[in-house]
């Protein structure tokens, strides 16, 4: 079942087209990354699907057409760091959140454990690091045990340790079968936690797919031999390679579909060249992202 379906969702701010005819389908259990540079329309999209920004045209359906009020109860969302009371402890703040959400306070300890703040539950919110504040926000969003979690730039401003903690937490939440929709401009973040992703640029969806389709396939090689220029002129004749370029003491090239590293090795051997290195490289989402953005300029 589609958890969320967007049909031509559009938002125009005066002359500015922030989101243009966006079509998306997100299914249960996916960790869906909405990726894009600053100003590409990620937050506006999340605002629309959370009913806080009115679409100019198009529509969206949660859970196959559930009423917006009912659907909203199934979604835990963090668009900005929520306003917790600085002089209250994490536990007291979550008690207030539970009261507002009309859910049982019995869930508070469980949620604090899940986000790794149980030991610090009696500390005042103002003494928390940015990463702990962000984890508490996720904890608040989990109080009502929603099947869907929406996160906007969840690691913004965090140090590497804080980023790693949030990443692990997102992975743990996803393992419980929850659907997570995450907006980010950080390729690394999307690559490490998401199963599916789309790329927005100037409000347009320019790509969508499975993260594994990109990062799991070897489509590049790093290759070197004693005489680099001879190797380069030789490899230029191989039809199974493209984008051949020198990168320091080695060459880098894209493998065309159907060509393997073994083919390249054999070809060089037949040409009398002994390779000192032939290393397959997994393409990163970053390379794919840059290629896609370039192609859509
Ligand atoms: N309330 C608003 N009024 C006018 N323009 C807006 C408003 N909100 C967003 N925009 C514009 O819409 C475009 C998309 O903004 P949005 O915040 O959705 O992008 P984003 O991808 O989330 O960017 P960032 O990564 O910087 O948060 C931008 O050009 C932005 O300036």
UniProtKB/TrEMBL annotation:
InterPro entries: AAA+_ATPase (IPR003593), ABC_transporter-like_ATP-bd (IPR003439), ABC_transporter-like_CS (IPR017871), P-loop_NTPase (IPR027417). SUPFAM superfamilies: P-loop containing nucleoside triphosphate hydrolases. GO terms for molecular function: ATP binding; ATP hydrolysis activity. It comes from the Bacteria. Residues 4-227 form the ABC transporter domain. Pfam families: ABC_tran. Keywords: ATP-binding, Nucleotide-binding, Transport. SMART domains: AAA. Gene3D superfamilies: P-loop containing nucleotide triphosphate hydrolases. Belongs to the ABC transporter superfamily. This is ABC-2 type transport system ATP-binding protein. It comes from Marinoscillum furvescens DSM 4134. The lineage of its organism: Bacteria, Pseudomonadati, Bacteroidota, Cytophagia, Cytophagales.
């Amino acid at each position: 079942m589609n958890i969320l379906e967007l049909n031509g969702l559009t938002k125009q701010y005066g002359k500015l087209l922030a989101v243009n005819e966006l079509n998306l389908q997100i299914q249960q259990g996916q960790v869906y990354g909405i990726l894009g540079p600053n100003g590409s329309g990620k937050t506006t999209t999340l605002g629309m699907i959370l009913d806080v920004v009115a679409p100019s045209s198009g529509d969206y359906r949660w859970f196959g057409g559930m009423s917006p009020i009912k659907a909203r109860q199934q979604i835990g969302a963090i668009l900005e760091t929520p306003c917790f009371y600085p002089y209250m402890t994490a536990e007291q703040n979550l008690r207030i959140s539970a009261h507002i959400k009309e859910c049982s306070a019995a869930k508070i300890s469980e949620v604090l454990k899940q986000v790794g703040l149980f030991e610090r539950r009696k500390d005042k919110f103002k003494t928390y690091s940015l990463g702990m504040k962000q984890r508490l926000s996720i904890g608040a969003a989990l109080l009502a045990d929603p099947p869907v979690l929406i996160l906007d730039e969840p690691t913004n401003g965090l140090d590497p340790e804080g980023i790693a903690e949030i990443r692990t937490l997102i992975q743990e939440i996803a393992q419980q079968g929850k659907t997570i929709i995450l907006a980010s401009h950080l390729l690394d973040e999307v690559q490490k936690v998401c199963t599916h992703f789309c790329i927005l640029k100037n409000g347009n969806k320019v790509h969508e797919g499975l993260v594994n389709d990109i990062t799991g396939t070897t489509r590049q090689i790093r290759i070197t031999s004693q005489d680099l220029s001879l190797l380069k002129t030789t490899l230029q004749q191989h039809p199974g390679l493209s984008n051949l370029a020198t990168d320091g003491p080695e060459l880098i090239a894209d493998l065309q579909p159907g060509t393997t590293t073994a083919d390249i090795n054999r070809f060089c051997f037949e040409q009398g060249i002994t390779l000192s290195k032939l290393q397959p490289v997994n393409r990163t989402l970053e390379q794919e992202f840059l290629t896609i953005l370039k192609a859509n300029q």
